[in-house]
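Run: sequence + flavin-adenine dinucleotide -> complex structure.
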Amino acid sequence: MARERFFLELTPPVEAMRQWPHVVILGGGFAGVKAAHALRNQPVRVTLIDKRNFNLFQPLLYQVAAGLVAESDVATPLRGLMENAGNVQVLLGEVVDLDLEAREVVFNDRRYRYDQLIVATGSGSSYFGHDEWREQAPPMKILEHADEIRRRLLTALEEAEQTPDVERRRFLQSVVIIGGGPSGCELAGSLSDLSRHSLRRFFRQVDPDHSRIVLVDPGDRLLRAMDPRLSEAAEGYLKRRGVELLLGGRVQAIEPGKVTVSVKGAEGSEPETRVLEAATICWTAGVRASHLGKLLAERSGCTVDRGGRVVVEPDFSIPGHPEIRVIGDLCSYSHTVDGNQLPGMAGPAVQMGSWVAQDMLARLQGQTMAPFRWLDFGSMAVIGPMFAVADLRGLRVTGALGWLLWGVAHLGFMPAMENRASLLVKWMWTIARGQRASLLITGKPNQHMNVEVGLDAVKALEEQPSQAAVPAL
Ligand SMILES: Cc1cc2nc3c(=O)[nH]c(=O)nc-3n(C[C@H](O)[C@H](O)[C@H](O)COP(=O)(O)OP(=O)(O)OC[C@H]3O[C@@H](n4cnc5c(N)ncnc54)[C@H](O)[C@@H]3O)c2cc1C
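>> structure
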């Protein structure tokens, strides 16, 4: 395989650039993009490699799934983001191997040398050893997953509009969401709003009162990472909007149109088995680190935790390799004041990207940075239109004020101005008119997988079990 200094050969840079150290960043998510931005127009050559050509704002994926906003509102092309960074080159490709001795990354059947490597390839979804459930219950991790959830939901409703059988219509209007964290709650809230408002206006036969949304979680409360009072507020809001909460519920099996759940009984009693029938099933329950974590461990002997995250040093390097930093969801960082591991969230990822880039630049000048300190601004979840819960360093906010803070924070985090503007307009439109801008059924019905839920497709599925799979990330 040819060994190249790609950046130099492709576009001969100015003379001075030839001497600059080459920083390769793997992954253009929150952490990688922040690191690239912090290195922009500095005396380093940067190559940003991602298998997608866009940065994805995952916290708003549920809005794509629920038809509130379009794909392009939550994704920004990486080339656009690096437009004003003359020293940053963006390359499209999936990194499949690392040669730590030669300091090379392997992708697109080529090898590229680095002086410094930042690995920020994030995380994917986990089905806790039941990958066979993926097909029936797509996760919500990449854009195609959100598209697929929306497609299943809307095709089921289209079929309900044409179905005289009331029981079948109830089935087609039922959704089961597994996982009562922020994503599950946000999706449940948004879908209940869709049922109550949009269905009434857009459909003639579908009866919104026949819609059923069930949120299943094994814990005894939703949003377990937040203060119990916020969980209570979120639960109350969802219940008032007709969402059924199945707390203490562990999924035992997922089959086409059916979820079997074992529900914790009262003290001393046996768990009860419940079967939930629904045309649309979504999975927001588990996370596993990108496979590059395991690969790094194999190549370097570094440790990964149970979730596949790379255990890093205080400066995010791995033992014996000060030139390699692992940041974002892929790292397990416990060098905090209280010794607790940093959460897999956008805030820590961005702060890590910024600190690591600055530390690299400081070292190049023979200086040292102050140790990394994470500033915890808190966490939030939007449960419905104009209703969010926010835990801001002990300050707990619910309702419209929470929603306002949530909106400001999310727009602030959104990397492109154009997306901020389009999101703001769509949110305002939805609040003012109760309409959803992006209720589109896109792609051929079986483009993504052979699991069909609407327009007679379940019948076809029962006759011919599917072979295809939901994209794995
Ligand atoms: C549905 C959902 C909702 C969320 N909501 C919130 C929220 O409200 N608040 C919050 O703080 N956090 C939230 N998070 C978590 C947050 O999105 C993540 O913590 C954050 O994205 C992590 O950033 P990252 O840069 O480490 O990884 P990512 O943003 O996942 O980026 C990883 C990048 O690496 C690329 N990549 C992966 N493998 C390879 C490879 N082999 N070769 C090349 N490129 C590769 C991917 O294409 C991707 O662009 C949410 C996550 C999800 C899924």
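>> summary
Residues 1-6, 465-469 have pLDDT under 50 and may be disordered. The chain has two domains: 3-51+93-122+290-364, 128-286+379-463.
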